[in-house]
Amino acid sequence: MSSQSAHPTLLIPGPVEFDDGVLQSMSHYSESHVGAGFVATFGETLSMLRRLFQTTNSASQPFVISGSGTLGWDLVAANLMEPGEAALVLSSGYFGDGFADCLEAYGAKVTKLEGPVGGKPQLADIEKALSQNKYKLLTVTHVDTSTGVLSDIKSVAAAANKVSPETLVVVDGVCSVACEEIAFDEWGIDAVLTASQKAIGCPAGLCISMFSGRAIAALKARKTEPATYFASMKRWMPIMQNYEAKKPSYFATPSPQLIHALNTALKLILARPLSERFQRHKEVANKVRKAVTDLGLKTVAINDEDRSHAMTAIYLPNKVAVTEVLPKLLDKGVIFAGGLHKEIATKYVRFGHMGVSAVDPKRNDVDMAIKALEESLSECGYSKA
Amino acid sequence: MSSQSAHPTLLIPGPVEFDDGVLQSMSHYSESHVGAGFVATFGETLSMLRRLFQTTNSASQPFVISGSGTLGWDLVAANLMEPGEAALVLSSGYFGDGFADCLEAYGAKVTKLEGPVGGKPQLADIEKALSQNKYKLLTVTHVDTSTGVLSDIKSVAAAANKVSPETLVVVDGVCSVACEEIAFDEWGIDAVLTASQKAIGCPAGLCISMFSGRAIAALKARKTEPATYFASMKRWMPIMQNYEAKKPSYFATPSPQLIHALNTALKLILARPLSERFQRHKEVANKVRKAVTDLGLKTVAINDEDRSHAMTAIYLPNKVAVTEVLPKLLDKGVIFAGGLHKEIATKYVRFGHMGVSAVDPKRNDVDMAIKALEESLSECGYSKA
């Protein structure tokens, strides 16, 4: 059986379809996690992440830890915050709310700003909040996977750096890294958290993050020790530094196969200019947006400038149920995801269009999915009024 | 390139060599983590873990979470302990000490019992400690990967259940599950933690654990909320229960590829009686032990009954350095690990003999490694006195 044997095309907002070479790397023969071969692969992987995040500041520190994207929230909450400190959470859906829950689990005092469903907090409100209270950090979800709402992290970081320069700017980039631009140094960002299985195009199982020198300094300046072990950045930092210096090091066993797959995925990404990759994701997102409009439907994201280029959340016609349309899509070889935002979960579907499905010219996943959506809605008795 | 293309045989105490079918599963095509196909695979995997751990009590709860074995320590420390509560840690090396560090990171008061290097705490001392103080839980490292010392967890659990029945018995089974017997129900164990990349024979990247109904009750009876998010058993429990009931569920994205590989590995293990598997690991360990004796060398484990069947830690002859012998072994296609226990790290090597290298009759990994060790020592100028 080929690992890529015929299968429905996975167009949910992560995991995504994988390049054959990436999947091949997943079945790499067994290696020691401290052997010279794997150490070189892991070190190279960490260095490539610096390029992906567009940071050349040697004080920036990448981390790759076995786990899911959610573990990235714990890294921030456990290491950058001390119990009782204040965090400002900008929420544009389920994942913004989740970050707030995680911060509170570690004892942070959280103030949450949110927009309406399909919207995001306004810059004026963010600046006001930052000027009225001292926040150790603010979090912003770059693309909220529940709504497909894109936040303008460049403007948010600029506002924070201006109004409250001591506040750390933390970006949840789970559904944005490798498809939306993130200029880590230039935009003044202190942390970006992501996962392997979205636009990076590697199977799930890795928590990937980048922290600024300012964030590391905040960690070192803590008055209390972080109450975590596996998520302790202090314990992982020398390990990551050693791997990148091609020296074996041990805290907890990494997954050589997943690291090989990530290495392959990053090489594919970095073989072309990042700007081209971001542009291609924009073009594909615009195509999906036009198809949605042509069908007489609306996206969950209310404003045009808030629509992500990673995925599109689409309101179904009134009389068409999610449970009716998803099986019809599957019959046509396409997998979309159902809704996740609790206030509207039964009313919309999510169409992921990132990674190889967007950038590999040999694939026509997105065109095929648009056609399948049109046909499925038609079979459900829907026609544009 | 075949994923299993010619490579040196990995005989460290994890990761281990993998069965071809397990590696093939690693490159499974992309699936939704909430799609029916993957949900069935994950559910079946959880049910198979009950058989591996020999528990038929429906109150027992398996967990499989992206992470390393170390994350298992956090599960215990964050969920079963509240800050200020007391834990008794039985240490037979680096990993017993690590568990103590993790418990302390979460605010536990730790009492540590340890034997000499190569030994373990004595049962009488354990009983005495349990009778003198009230401990919320005790931890015992079944096989300490740094020393190859095997603990008698059946006797430890029996002693704890007799002397201090309210104390939870927690076993670190990272280097023992699937090669040393663990009768979870019969022996009165409350938690076993392990990782995917050791005797289970799946690539690294999964934290695997089993908790008793008593442990779950202790979690529910907490006065304070656990200060963790990703390691929160309360958040994961309904997810695991839903997957096992074949219902989609979401807290954080699991790794479909690793779960497929684990599923394949467990099917291979459970296709034969577990007793046969444990017996085979004993035979292989005895063969290694005899070879060590024949070479005039000593194992780090002092007493015969304390020698694990997963791995053997072997003191090198006085004049042979670890850095001299490991490259010679590699020349012969064999990878051993260096030492890890800080007091003796430069004096010994570790030989892992678990998983397919022990049980697959088509392989002669262990015989080849014994021969390579003999030749390498000879090349280093060593001959038995």
Automatic annotation (TrEMBL), chains A, B:
GO biological process: glycine biosynthetic process, by transamination of glyoxylate
Entry keywords, A to Z: Aminotransferase, Pyridoxal phosphate, Transferase
GO CC term (a single one): peroxisome
Domain Aminotransferase class V per the UniProt entry, residue ranges: 28-341
Highest taxon above the source species: Eukaryota
Coiled-coil segments: none
Protein name: alanine--glyoxylate transaminase
Gene source species: Ophiocordyceps camponoti-rufipedis
